[in-house]
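Thread: Modeling a multi-component assembly for a lab meeting

Hi all, long-time lurker, first post. My supervisor asked me to bring a structural picture of a complex we are working on to next week's group meeting, and I have zero experience with this. I have the sequence lines for every component (1061 residues in total). Could someone generate the structure of the whole assembly? Inputs are pasted exactly as I received them:
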Amino acid sequence: MRPIDYRRASSFDDAAAGQIIAGGTNLLDLMKIEVMTPDTVVDITRLDGLSTIEAEDDGLRIGALVTNTMLANDARVRAGWPLLSRAILAGASAQIRNKATTGGNLLQRTRCPYFYDTSQACNKRSPGEGCAARGGAGRMLALFGTSDQCLAAHPSDMAVALAALQAEVEIRGAEGRRRRVPIHDFYRGPGDRPDIETVLDRGDLITAVVLPRPLEGARQTYRKVRDRASYAFALVSVAGSVTMDGETMSDVSLAYGSVAPHPWMDHDVVAMLEGERPSDALFQRAADRLVPDSAPHPDTDYKRTLLRRTFIATLRQLTGLGDATGTDIARTHG
Amino acid sequence: MKDHFTMDEPQPRVLDETKQGVIGTPMDRPDGARKVSGTAGYAADHKVEGMAHGVLVRATISRGRVTDIGRASVMDLDGVIEVVTDPRMTRNPAQGMAGEAPVQPGDDVHYHGQPIAVVVAETFEAARDAAQRLVVTYRKEDAASDPDATPDTEVGDPETAGDFDAAWAKADVRLDRTYTTPSQVSAAMEPHAAIAEWTDGRVELRSSLQMVRFNKAELADTLGIDADRVRILSPFVGGGFGSKLGLGPEAVAAAIASEKLGRPVRVVMSRQNVFDAVLRRSETRQRVRLGASKDGQLLALSHDDRVSNLDGEGFAEPVSQASQFLYRADGLSFTQTVARIAATPAGSVRAPGEAVGMVALEAAMDELADELGVDPVELRLNNLPDTHPMDGRAFSTRRLADCLQDGAARFGWADRWTRGTRREGDWLIGMGVASAARSNMLVKSAARVRLQGDRAVVETDMTDIGTGTYAILSQIAGEMLGLSPDRVDVRLGDSDLPGASGSGGSFGASSAGSATFLAAKRIRRDIARKLGCPEDALTLQNGRARGDNREADLSELIDQELVGEAEIEAGKTDESHFSAGFGAHFAEVAVNEWTGEVRVRRMLAVMSMGRILNEKTARSQALGGMIWGIGTALTEEVQSDARDGHVVTRDLANYHVPSHADVPGDMQVVFLEERDDWANPIQTKGIGELGISGAGAAVINAISHATGHRTYDCPALPDRVISSLAP
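Re: Modeling a multi-component assembly
Sure thing. I ran the full set together rather than chain by chain. Output:
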């Protein structure tokens, strides 16, 4: 870790003065191994108004500094958006969730081991350097949305849930104006600049995440498959919310984690499902649409099969087609 | 005067006659409170006046030579004192019990991650920064890092008994399977660390080491100085599992930097350093061939393996160790191949050999039972040898059959259903069994016991690596001297004390415990003389001595310190009798038929492992081993980049030891009563490693019972399980 200037922001305008730190659960690790080497770190944890969850219209406005623990345990979230609570609790450990913040979680960096090892070429760490993961060991890499420059996946569970819930990110610009961006527009693909991961401009500060009104009577789950039962990043995950109208699926929202540089969504798949009766045949056809014909790295070829199967299993349980014994399906209520 | 004892004949069960009654009790470890309150001083915890901080620099090529260490690139940074290189620096830790310097490569680089220098600074942070920034220039050479691709392999001579080929030809049922296990690491909680300080030409090293007697010789040889100029202190070790058997490069770097700079130097490995440069367990490829008659008698048994290591390392994972004595067959054959690769070198990791070899052997036995249509427990019971199949030695004690039968009854094995037929929702349920076996050893050990009044002190350079040495030595001395263990102080991990086996191979408790027993026994002789009775009439209990109608409190009788010192080593019983711990593992798992996730629902181990010295620490050892078994079966895998051998999973987020959620609440351990008179005078056997031996196989076999399909590659990660379901 290199010597840094530490500043404590006392106003929103101060946030532009350097690398923002809140919980620091990812940034400090990256600074210690010099994957990130900011000169100045600006601590925003004393800024007012960013640490509360408030009702807004029929939805919720979640301050950027609300911890993962507080958000997952909020009674309103557990009742109206149980998918979000489950996704957060599926990630990290209690100690990390106590420190990690809502805004910081969205901005956590990939866990691609080549990004973390400064002896290995990485375009995300040093644009133009090359990508050692290509041709290397790549079990955790992405399946969709990669570029020649970068194969890395986004590791967040929370962001996948927020995508399925169609949340928006509230951003305060350097000039003080606030704007809201849907989660699926917040991230950008790697393209030829994998170091640029979001639409945030210099001086921008995430101030909140906004949840739209809950879907009464939806069945929701966050299905995370990983290499051990806890404290591991997803191999694939499916965030799902399905509302049944009689015997048909009236409202379907799905997002997929650890398969792309950002939470992955496929509107064609949703369109295939909405208004239809659940059936294995339909879910197989939808999986055919969802899953790509090939993987960008041989080590992630298994994710095509695993995503397909996790997708079908999750839909079976959300729609009552499958026995949900031993799984975690919640029904929303306002 | 030191008593010398050689284990030449079976020994009387003295600890069953003594009266204090503390042997075997689940006594809390006396050091426990200090450990959980953070007041036990681990190697890196010490602060020495004037101490500088060193951080190791790793090579970032897999073979070649350092042409310029790039000292100038960091010397201007604030706080940097020096970039130290030295021809005496070592490329990796010594192998266990080496007693001599590891390879000292000079400017040569043999693997990616090899320590090539240590940057010393006024603060740890400055040293770490400079180590990152150092611009090293190399001359690169080609080298193979992939064990499947290297042209450099050494095929050993087969070890055989009988005629395997003839027996194989005669078999009615033949099973020929290849299994793989990945490289693993010890992942001890405490990273490797050392503080070195020179005074008057003598170096004192505080380090986290398992085998102080050997480590002292290793440091002296590495530095090129006499051993009497070396003192090593290792009173607390935060987990070893083999990774701290030998003196590590961080300790050598600290000693050399301290000598050059004339001030104490501390070197602590980062977790990434530990993955890069501490000895790993080799990945294995294992071919098991089992040939049996229709009625379930094994006729042919072969277990061949391919492991890897770096050139210059004598260690090769002894994969087939247990396969050579567990079952009988007319023909047995074992061949090992070592692939030489440019990658982090391999060495001892918890139960070298059995930990991975038994996964393959016991999975093959399970599949053979299926092929034969016999119960897997029955197949094992029907094929136990009368004597050691390879050399004919008698077994000292072996209650494997009792373990299998007792375990089957406790686990509800009789209610086991047909493979692949039970489900709960999307989860398929299965039960598995495996034998456990781990050879038992006695290693030369000395200890000294001092008795002053009714307080005793045990002194030995033995270590406590979290296993409970402080507890059991206080119990042994207390039992022999009639003292409550809390009146016995135990001093460990100091090379100035009598030299013991150290902690490794599960032989520490038996070896150092026997030395302590013998030292205390010598004191009993002196007490008897003082009391005025024959030694065999002496009873010691609760600080009071009795014998021949005489009685006295030790606090009054022992007015001058009594000192007993004893040394033990293996002898003729080792030639006539083969001693090993045995057991049986049972596991029940649930396998998600969609995602391939496996959850262990309950585990049981029934073990016969000689006399139990402390029921609580023994149980903890067994449980820890079983959890390793879960890791072997389900989660643990070092991934390396085949192009240059560098470790990709360099932290505990990517190298997956089992989390709490992977370990079921229902973990049962049962010890069967046993005394091994041929093993040592306290009738114990090694405990720690038996828990892992076979445990992973029970889980793997349970998966196959659940799904009806077999996986041959460990760990059984979700994608591998799915592949087995829909091949």
